[in-house]
Design a protein that fits this description.
Length: 261
């Protein structure tokens, strides 16, 4: 653990570690193998690849990589990748999947993303997919500084988190119990503008915001048994919604991309 942590930070860290160990020992396969989630995952992979630097001859860091299912799906397009996560259970799954597929240019490590001293100016791109919204606000500044230091000059940081302004929140009251089962006690949704502000405070430039999906992500978690044919129709309708100016700000997910000059 980083030095100087207060008891609140330690409690949150331990809650997150236990929650994700339990998750990757339990419901993960049912969710991640569903048709809706696979469509969402492929869309996310394309976004990451298209907005990253160094995919073909550089190094990528994936923070909060989980069981590596997102990353391993890009193994034929990414030259070198390090995936880190606080869940030893998740990392064991990622390592086993990489070994089974003979993927030796990816490395998965149990590590605390708040402390990246061993990776100073090492990476061309850092992915933080579903990571920031698990942090408490008091550690944001140092977290972004740590990510900044781990990037090479000219490198990019890409984040993806649930949008606090998401339209589907009006239905949350009907699925509260199931929603809570798949969300750790301390996580929360983030306002895209607040994330952009953190990018600016950390001196990132050329900041871009993209909205990822309206209802596909919540449906994938809540109803993983939706048939593939139905999932495909829903997916493409969802993509149309994310392309409507202004209305897309009510999307469920949000990507933010920034560059270190």
């Amino acid at each position: 653990m980083p030095a100087g942590e207060n008891l609140q930070q330690v409690r949150v860290y331990m809650n997150e570690e236990k929650f994700h160990d339990d998750f990757y020992n339990g419901a993960v396969d049912k969710i991640f193998s569903s048709s809706l989630y696979q469509l969402l995952l492929n869309d996310q992979r394309d976004f990451l690849f298209n907005h990253s630097k160094g995919c073909q001859n550089g190094a990528i860091l994936s923070v909060a990589c989980g069981d590596g299912v997102r990353e391993l799906g890009l193994s034929d397009r990414v030259h070198s990748l390090v995936g880190i996560d606080i869940s030893a259970v998740a990392i064991d799954k990622a390592r086993s999947a990489a070994q089974k597929s003979n993927i030796d240019h990816f490395k998965f490590v149990v590590a605390d993303a708040r402390s990246l001293e061993n990776y100073q100016e090492h990476f061309d791109t850092i992915w933080c997919c579903g990571f920031l919204h698990h942090l408490t606000e008091d550690v944001y500044t140092e977290q972004f500084n740590s990510l900044w230091r781990a990037l090479k000059h000219g490198g990019r940081l890409i984040t993806s988190d649930p949008n606090a302004l998401r339209l589907v929140n009006v239905f949350k009251v009907f699925f509260r119990k199931k929603y809570n089962a798949f969300h750790s006690p301390d996580e929360r949704e983030l306002k895209p503008g607040d994330v952009v502000m953190q990018f600016k405070k950390a001196q990132f430039e050329n900041i871009q915001v993209s909205y990822s999906n309206f209802f596909i992500s919540p449906l994938a978690w809540l109803f993983p048994k939706i048939p593939k044919s139905v999932a495909t129709v829903l997916f493409y309708f969802d993509r149309l919604l994310t392309r409507i100016p202004l209305f897309n700000r009510l999307s469920s997910g949000c990507f933010v991309v920034g560059e270190k000059k």
